[in-house]
TrEMBL record:
Xref: PANTHER family: LACTATE UTILIZATION PROTEIN C (PTHR43682)
Gene source species: Streptomyces tremellae
Protein name according to UniProt: LUD domain-containing protein
Coiled-coil positions: none
Residue ranges of the region described as Disordered: 1-25
Lineage: Bacteria, Bacillati, Actinomycetota, Actinomycetes, Kitasatosporales
Domain of life: Bacteria
Length: 195
């Protein structure tokens, strides 16, 4: 058997002519916003200069007096926020008392309305995005937005802990009544920031 296989010619590389997206580049950001909205995420758009004021306003409207912060979150993002900063090394009890979390993301997928976090410096440990009831995720557009999942995969390191988020945490009971906040934040706010 091995002798027969050893004599066989090298198998040709299969042709892969499928599309890696169905969305034109000039539509990905708008499609991402539409799909996030369909998943009941709250979508905001702003320029980079307006980001600190927007985050401060969102935390204030939520009444968050504390916010979980990844170690590499840009300082200027929270420059105007009055909330106490809690590091991603907080204990479970400390995290349970946190009102909100602010993170960046690794990549956002327009066609599925999905945010992918990879525990990068501006995203922190996975648990900070699963315990607080309110998550503000900042997406740099258009740089971090791709059309389809095949475009996202080369941007991700499979050895890192990946969290794929499509809207706020939700599930349905046996009668199909939707219940939010079961396995993560009840409220997801996504800020699409340009510049």
């Amino acid at each position: 058997m091995r002798a027969a296989v050893a004599q066989a010619p090298e198998a040709p590389e299969p042709e892969r002519g499928y599309r890696d997206t169905h969305t034109p580049d000039d539509r990905v950001v708008d499609l991402l916003a539409e799909n996030l909205d369909d998943y009941r995420a709250v979508v905001h758009r702003c320029a980079a200069a307006g980001l600190p004021a927007l985050i401060a306003r969102l935390l204030g409207e939520r009444g968050s007096t504390s916010v979980a912060v990844p170690p590499g979150l840009p300082e200027e993002w929270l420059a105007l926020a009055a909330a106490t900063r809690v590091p991603d090394t907080a204990t479970p009890a400390q995290l349970d008392a946190v009102g909100s979390v602010v993170t960046g993301c690794a990549v956002a997928i327009a066609e599925t309305g999905t945010l992918v976090l990879d525990a990068g410096p501006d995203q922190g440990r996975r648990r900070i995005t699963l315990v607080p009831d309110h998550h503000i995720c900042v997406v740099r557009v258009p740089d971090q937005v791709v059309g389809g999942v095949p475009q996202a995969m080369p941007r991700l390191d499979p050895t890192r802990p990946l969290t794929w988020i499509s809207g706020p945490s939700a599930t349905s009971d046996i009668e199909l009544d939707r219940v939010e906040g079961v396995h993560g934040p009840r409220t997801l706010e996504v800020v699409l920031v340009e510049g």
